[in-house]
Design a protein that fits this description.
Blueprint (H helix, E strand, L loop, with lengths): L1 H5 L2 H27 L6 H21 L2 H20 L3 E3 L2 E3 L1 H18 L3 H16 L1 H10 L9 E10 L3 H14 L4 E8 L4 E8 L6 H12 L4 E10 L2
Antiparallel strand pairs: 1-2, 3-5, 3-6, 4-5
Helix pairs in contact: 2-3, 2-5, 2-6, 3-4, 3-5, 4-5, 5-6
């Protein structure tokens, strides 16, 4: 029987320890995610950790360290696609990035366990849980801090509400005016306005501006013929 010839007690015990460690560490990571009601909770993190450990352990048993590294690299890629499934875009906001990153880290824990790096897997688990818990109040404190528009990572938009008949001409005026003031324009979108108006939204390349300069630019644009309103706004990027 093939099973009898392939069965080795010591090797099987090694696999049991690796998968049990992946299960334990995945449970610890997933419990924190489940408590916070995240999309990928307890079972998902456990399955990612155990699955990663099983693939790497199998490759290590059959082929050795080189094959284990090759399989681990493919695990990283595969979990990347899995993590993309939990990322959702809601308007200007993106949710699920932290959950996706946690799944990626759970795979790293499983890969370490699968290669018998149990201590390393435990250390990574500790760091993941600390990152998702201890750093939460730090992140909140930073979010509550006053926004320094010159130093923060923000995107800027200049919005020009114009008559639809003059939209094409004023689009060029908008770009030329901004670039004359050294504000490069990444793209200009058109949004429907009210009463036959069109809203031109110029997205700037730069992440650092002088608010007073944008105020002066929008004031000048607002005085252009066929322009109903001009303003600008900043959006904090994660």
């Amino acid at each position: 029987m093939q099973f009898v010839s392939n069965f080795h007690g010591a090797q099987f015990l090694d696999t049991v320890v690796s998968l049990a460690a992946a299960f334990l560490f995945g449970t610890l990571i997933g419990a924190e995610r489940q408590y916070r009601q995240r999309t990928a909770g307890l079972r998902t993190n456990v399955l990612v950790a155990v699955g990663s450990a099983a693939f790497v352990d199998l490759a290590s048993s059959l082929g050795g360290p080189t094959d284990a590294m090759r399989v681990a690299a493919n695990v990283v890629t595969g979990v990347g696609f899995l993590g993309a499934g939990v990322i959702m875009k809601e308007g200007m906001n993106v949710r699920g990035l932290n959950t996706a990153a946690t799944l990626w880290c759970s795979a790293a824990v499983g890969a370490c366990a699968g290669t018998d790096r149990i201590a390393e897997a435990g250390l990574i688990t500790f760091i993941i849980i600390a990152g998702n818990t201890v750093l939460r109040p730090v992140a909140r404190a930073i979010d509550r801090a006053p926004l320094d528009a010159r130093r923060s990572e923000v995107s800027y938009e200049v919005r020009l509400t114009v008559d639809s008949a003059a939209a094409a001409d004023l689009r060029d005026v908008l770009i030329d005016t901004l670039e004359a003031e050294k504000y490069l324009v990444r793209d200009v979108d058109e949004e429907p306005g009210t009463d036959g108006a069109v809203v031109l939204v110029a997205k700037l390349v730069t992440t650092s501006v002088v608010p007073a300069e944008l105020d002066a630019i929008t004031d000048r644009l607002a005085k252009r013929p066929h322009t109903r309103h001009a303003t600008w706004e900043s959006v904090t990027e994660e």
